[in-house]
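fyi for ur records
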Amino acid sequence: MSFKLIIDTGTWMKLEKLLNLNIINEKYIGELYNLAQISITPQIERELNQLSIYSWQKNKTYIIPVTNEKDYFRAINDGFDKADASIFGIYEKFTYTILTEDRPLLRYGKMYNMDFIFFIDFLLRLMETDLISKNELYSMNKAIFNLRNINKNHFSRIKKFAQHH
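which gave:
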């Protein structure tokens, strides 16, 4: 596996919505697991269960406990809920790419030089390494934009990149 990913609750919700709208299928989620080591924290797992998110595969997902309580509680004190804060409480947090749709969380993570990115930007990385085609990126970009998950500037940047590569 070439990627170590932490996927937050909001991104799992997006994947669930894409599945429910038949934009992606179960095979797509399976391929994501084939490409990456996917991890979550127990706090994210609780949210996924409470929200009845079924797109994640528990038997293939690594559950990483919070071991750095100082960073965990700092994130809580800075206004993040337990699930979001738990990402900062992981011992090897700098070795992961963290997929989020939460702009404040993304900015906060970048403040600490962590690799936080939107799901669409992860797909862009996959295209750059020839793991998905530019047509796949183009259609996912359009679908995600239509769901109003990315703004027009972000959509246009990804579209332009896909068209020129």
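The first strand starts at residue 3 and ends at 7. thats all i got for now
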